[in-house]
Amino acid sequence: MKSMKKLVIFISIASATAFSGGVFAQATMDHSKMGDVNMMVSNDMTQGEVRKIDKEVKEVKKITIKHGEIKNLEMPPMTMVFQVRDPALLEKVQAGDKVQFKAIKDSGALVVTDLQLVK
């Protein structure tokens, strides 16, 4: 009988905990205003160095950056190619420049949305 009481108490506590957690999540998150989760951008800029700029491809402009950790993408430091949302960003930098940038994942592609020269 004692084990049955313990089981009932355990189930009651587990149910209450699960229910209150669900209510809390609903009260604090309005999913209709979130949009595409992949489009979420961190306010943190990532440090990097421009290795190469590809302006020749007409459809997609690209930049190769050796970068530190990109926190909003949970990406470790490495060198990689990014697409650029606004090709005008490429006009203010050249290979070898130290930069700060923001990148997002947009429909599977990694895209630089902001790029600033570090002086």
Describe this structure in a few short sentences.
23% of the residues lie in helices and 34% in strands. The protein has 119 residues and is of the alpha+beta class.
Report on the structure:
There is one protein chain. This protein is α+β, with helices and mostly antiparallel strands. It has two domains: 2-33; 37-117, OB fold (Dihydrolipoamide Acetyltransferase, E2P). 23% of the residues lie in helices and 34% in strands. It has one helix and five strands, in the order H-E-E-E-E-E. A five-stranded mixed beta barrel has the order 1-2-3-5-4. The relative contact order is 0.17.
What is the tally of helical segments? 1
Tell me what the CATH architecture of the largest domain is. Beta Barrel
CATH superfamily of the largest domain: Copper binding periplasmic protein CusF
Helix content: 10-25%
Oligomer designation: single chain
Q: Which word captures the global form?
A: elongated
Q: Number of DSSP strands?
A: 5
β-sheet strand percentage:
25-35%
Mean pLDDT: 77
Q: Briefly note the structural class of the backbone.
A: alpha+beta
State the CATH topology of the largest domain.
OB fold (Dihydrolipoamide Acetyltransferase, E2P)
Q: Biggest sheet: strands, sense, closure?
A: 5 strands, mixed, barrel
Q: How many distinct folded domains?
A: 2
The CATH first-level class of the largest domain comes to: Mainly Beta
| Uncertain stretches | 17-42
How much is the radius of gyration in Å? 23 Å
Q: Order of SSEs, N→C? A: HEEEEE
User: What's the end-to-end separation, in Å?
Assistant: 75 Å
Lateral arrangement of strands in the main beta sheet? 1-2-3-5-4
